[in-house]
Every structure is written in C-alpha cells, then in structure tokens.
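Page 47, continued from p. 46.
Same chain as before, 420 aa.
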Amino acid sequence: MDTEEGKWPWQVSVRFRGLHVCGGSLIAAQWVLTAAHCILSRFHYSVKMGDRSIHNQNTSLVMPVRKIIVHSLFRRARTVKNDIALLHLLQPVNFTSAIQSVCIPSEILWVEAGTNCWVTGWGKTSQGGDSYNAHAKRRDTASAGDSTPGTMISGCGHRILRIVGGAPAPERKWPWQVSLQVNDKHVCGGSLIAHQWVLTPCWPEWSGVPGRGVVWRGRWLLAVVVPVRDIVMHHDYSSRGTISDDIALALLDFPVNYSTHIQPVCLPEKTFLVPDGTTCWVTGWGKLEETDKPDKAPKMLQEADLTIMRYKECNRLLKRLMKAKNDVVRKGAVCGYSDKGKDSCQGDSGGPLVCEYNETWIQVGIVSWGVGCGHEGYPGVYTEVSFYVDWVKRHMNQASCLDSTAFLVLLLCLVLPLGS
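Result:
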C-alpha cells in the first residue's frame, strides 16, 4: 500500500547515474545503510531523500555519494551472504520533519520470532508491474524502523541562564539540552544539534580552559559526560556595549549515540523567521531568583514558556526602558517575554529557545542576555539561530571533511540507562 508523506523519513532512494536502483536507510547525517548487491560500480551514485516519490525532484534532496564501503565477505554465489554496504554522503544532511535517521540496534538485540514489523520501498507492486510511490507492507520479520514500544525516537526535534518562574522539566522532555562544564562545574547551557556538535553562546573564557566537557544532566549520577575537543566562536562576537553575534559551536571529542534521553534539536532554515506572538519554550539550570547565589541553582532542569517578540519591537522597548541612545537589539537577535514573570537568568546562558512546528521542535534562539531576571516588561534577548545557520553548517561541514570517519563511530557504551 502507498505510504503517508513523511511516515518513514529515513527511507532513501539509492540512485546510479540518476536512476533508482535500490532502497536504503539514513542512519546518521552523512551515512546510508543499503545492500551490497545494489553496488554496481564505485562511482556515479547519489541518494534521494525527503519525499515518497522517486520521480519528483522538486520536493526532495539529492546528495552525491563520496565513498562506498561494501562488506569484505559479501558473496553472490548461490546464497547471498554479508549483503550489506555503507554509503558515505558528500556532506551531512540537515534533519527535518521529512528527513530523519533510523536507530541501529545494539549487538545484543535479537528481534523475537513473530514480531510484526514494517518494510518499505519503491519496488514493483506486483510481479511484472511497474514501480510506484513508496509503499509499505507489514511483515512478521525484523525491520529497522519498527515503531514498537522501546524503540528510540530518531532524527532531530523529537522528545520520547535559570528559568525564573518556570517549573522542573519532566525527565526526557528536552533531550537536546546539555550542560557545558569546566572542572565539573556548570558554566552554561547548550543544545545538541548533531552527534558531535553542541550549539552554545560565545565565551572568551572557553579558549584554553582545561577540563571542558558536556554533560546530559538527566539523573546526575548516570549522566553521559563527553570531553570538548574544540570551541568555534563567531569571528564577529562582541561584548562591548551591546552583545552581538553571540554564538559558538562545541566540537565533542567523539560522537554520541542517540537514545531516549539524548536527541538532537532541529535547526531552522535561513529564511525561517519565528512569527511575533508565537509561544516557545526556554530551558536551563540557571538561578531561580535573581538574588540567588550560584550554589542555590537548581539541580533539575527548569522550563518556561515565553512569547516571541521580533527584534525591532524589542529594540524600541528596551531602548526606552534602558534610556539608551543607541540600538541595544540588532538583527540576528530575537526576544522572548512573559506576563507572568518567567525568564532566563544567570546560568541559563546558551540554553535553547525552541518552538514546536508539526510535532517537530526547532531551535529558534540561544539564551544571550537580559536586564536582570524576570523583571516585568523587560524581554530577554536571544541569538536568532536562523540568522546564523549558514555559519553553523559551514563550520560543521569543514570539520566533517577533515574528519569524515568520526560520523560513523557508534559508541554503544554511551547509551546509559538514565532512568525513566
């Protein structure tokens, strides 16, 4: 039967010289899993993804294949054996509601006989028939992508400074939220945007600081801790007068595996502007009250809903309240406010401001600065992610070219039982 649009976002069409030859599945931002018997040559391959039609090019993404790895023991004679191959894409793809990765099982997982699973593809719908749009069949066999209980959510934007006036966030609700730490002490928040990348604000103090690391602070004693290899700060960052270009990337020492507690958030497209008045959410471990001492910061992640204010209106408001002559909020920033006194505060810096669209969470902002915490009538200022998304992708792609094998590392030891 024909599938619904977007139902199997990891399904791809493997193409040779522009023609569909086989199916495949996206397992990471730059890797596709397919069958070895599909490989007819080492060159001229591409992968099409993003919609259910193998013919329509306007609504999908076609990515060239950089490298093909066929299992060394693959055999065609009599019985096909070791029929598996990996396709390394030319560059990482950006996860969207239509493009997501599927989870790979651990070595100890055995699917039980009689389990109902699903298989998808663009093969013939009858012997001798023609190929058509993507279709799916239910099988009593194993298939990656089965949505049975216990399967981890895959792709970005899904979830199985402190927040003044907020509330503790339920476990696993914000699986992209991370704590950036120096010598085991929380410094600021951040968000996971890929297996090896965290989005955070600029901190000049980061450079050369030993003991830098990223922590997923679920149940603290069982959290995943990953060292930070490098920090890429925006070249135009300035904290003189008004903070601007407050964005940085943290490159982790190794990729993390996604789990129910660890998932990436989606990045918006460059043209995306979150509308004025939209309700979004900010999260972090910052102070609960402006006058609190640092040691009074909450141990549990806090959340608060805020209303979006575009930068021009926000600038007019803050200029008047601060009695400033020059602009204080410029293009590249967005603001959030609450009539109930909710706000981000010290310790929340770097935390994500996220909005939900079509059941997918998109990061629209990064906690940057504000006037106090939760002051009535004073909106908080956030770095607008869409304004810098090209900068983010460029630096991620540059690092990928230098160390492309890193995106394939599957460190199963990092998938820890963080609790329910």
